[in-house]
Amino acid sequence: MRIVCNVITLLAIGAGLALSAPAHAQDKLATVASFSILGDFVKNVGGDRIAVTTLVGPNGDAHVYEPTPADAKALNTAKVVFINGLGFEGWMDRLVRASGSKATVVTASQGVTPIAFAGEEEDDHAKGKKHAHEEHEHGQDPHAFQSIANVKLYVGNIRDALIAADPAGKDVYEANATAYTAKLDALDGEVKAAIQAIPEGQRKIITSHDAFGYFGKAYGFAFIAPQDISTESEASAKDVARLIRQIKADKVKAVFVENITDRRLIDRIAKETGAVVGGELYSDALSPPDGPAATYIDMFHHNIKTLSAALSS
Ligand SMILES: [Zn+2]
């Protein structure tokens, strides 16, 4: 009798485990995220129920990424593929098609109000001066993830897509999304408080490419860059010269290098204008796990700390 009871107990424990979470990697919902920041959002919402493969890794530049055969393989076995959209990863459509993937492709930025990328529109920081980008094509700025309010929309889209692909996990995905959104709200409060300490006239920042338009809009910063919203084309000599004139005229204190781009142009601009290099900002990718921006929340903390240190004095 005792043996029978033990067997029943074991069966019950086994059933309990099966209900709580898939036990093996092959039981997890296979997902792909196009780049590291998005991969972090997907991990936070999916938790233990999913496996995430990130294509463009730490410090990687998604604008000019060249996919690998391993990427095609990951897409082929994925059930859900998350992309940023807004033209951020232009190589992705072709890669998905070429891989033969049957995955649902989810645009995580769905619902975001895009910032139109057009030179004249951003003239508030330039006070009538010609903007460095006026000769570039008009388009949409893809870096919507640099606004925490936008990321809350990403999280909702990710949650809904995971529920659609794995309805049994609904409660888990909803709870994870709610918990992560609460952390994002706390982060947003911290960022706003930190920015209050930076004198308003100094909330003006130069980076190598225009990745901080949404950040600037959300938090009252002007970001100016010699390269436009993509890193695909190099900044022209004319754009750089114009930017240097603007930095001098506006008495901009600091310029910043980015983790995904070559720092030489920023170093040169610093040298020619007398602005200091204020540190490294994480724009389009996280750092490796042992770096200062291993998660989106760490990335925001790092960027705010870097901006405050360079601009508050
Ligand atoms: Zn970018």
Structure in words:
By secondary structure, this protein is α/β, with parallel strands linked by helices. The chain folds into 2 domains: 23-187, Rossmann fold (3-Layer(aba) Sandwich); 194-311, Rossmann fold (3-Layer(aba) Sandwich). The protein is built from 10 helices and 10 strands. The chain has helices spanning 2-20, 36-46, 69-77, 92-99, 148-165, 170-196, 213-219, 237-250, 264-273, 296-311; strands spanning 29-35, 50-56, 80-83, 104-107, 116-117, 139-140, 204-206, 222-224, 254-258, 276-281. The strands form 4 sheets. The chain has a 4-stranded parallel β-sheet, with helices on both faces. Helix 3 (69-77) crosses helix 4 (92-99), helix 5 runs antiparallel to helix 6 (170-196) and helix 6 runs parallel beside helix 10 (296-311). The longest helix is centred in the middle third of the chain and has 27 residues, at 170-196. The model is unreliable at 1-20 and 119-137 (pLDDT under 50). It binds zinc ion.
Compact overview of the structure:
Its main location: other. This protein has 313 residues and is α/β, with parallel strands linked by helices. It has 10 helices and 10 strands.
